[in-house]
Amino acid sequence: FLIFHRYFTWAYENALREECGYRGYQPYWNWLAYRESPSKSPMFDGTDTSLSGNGAFRAHNGSMAGSVFLPSGKGGGCVTEGPFANMTVHLGPVSPGIDGLPLNPGGPFAYNPRCLSRDLSDWTSQHWMTPENLLNLTIGAAAASVRTFQDELQGRFKDRFVGTHTSGHMIVNGEASDMFSSTNDPTFYLHHAMVDRVYWLWQALHPREARSIAGTITFLNNPPSRDARLDDLILQEPNAPNRPISDLMNTLGGPFCYIYA
């Protein structure tokens, strides 16, 4: 999870430069800034320099993050303001968390043009994007090992704890609530840059654990599989060359050359 998304986000930034002429760097979404009301942040305020704002109001019965119910916000429909108003997305949905977003009738890989939808959630942000949760990840009990770190980051749904990673998806909601097609929403890359920043901080604060990994080679260990090794490949083609995990552990090694402010 951690290394795959580090490499995937880097590949996206690289594509922006090489294919689109972008001259900047990959920004990250500081979860704690405007955590009380994300819609008021420069990222979501709907201006021309934002990533667009909320979706139009669509009555719906909230959302599910795993087994945790999240109340509906003031959106749910198509984004109407900012640079991604009238944007068309093409793949998915496969497994949306928000109520009322229909599955792709042709299957997960079928062409399914539709608008970009969102339902910005102050409630989700206020509950889980907290300084206490970030401190726990980086220097608290959850920071004890890479396994406890990534499990806390992703969420303990049996305990009704959504975690900061899942919260980011559910704060944006709509397309972002579907883990299979959440990349349809441009906020995905800023969110996962912040995930990588928190991981980078954890690595810097825990150098003895920094090159350790935890987990198996199948998603949620289904079907059951062996533990991952540092020589296992992260499959990224055609976005970037496939590389072993060991090449991607250090943001100043392998293909990378970056740190976070």
TrEMBL record:
Keyword Ion transport: no
Keyword Metal-binding among UniProt keywords: yes
Pfam families per the UniProt record, alphabetical: Tyrosinase
GO MF terms held by the record: metal ion binding; oxidoreductase activity
Residue span, Tyrosinase copper-binding domain: 185-196
Source organism superkingdom: Eukaryota
Keyword terms, alphabetized: Metal-binding, Oxidoreductase
PANTHER family on file: N-ACETYL-6-HYDROXYTRYPTOPHAN OXIDASE IVOB-RELATED (PTHR11474:SF125), TYROSINASE FAMILY MEMBER (PTHR11474)
Protein name from the UniProt record: FAD binding domain containing protein
Species assigned in the record: Colletotrichum musicola
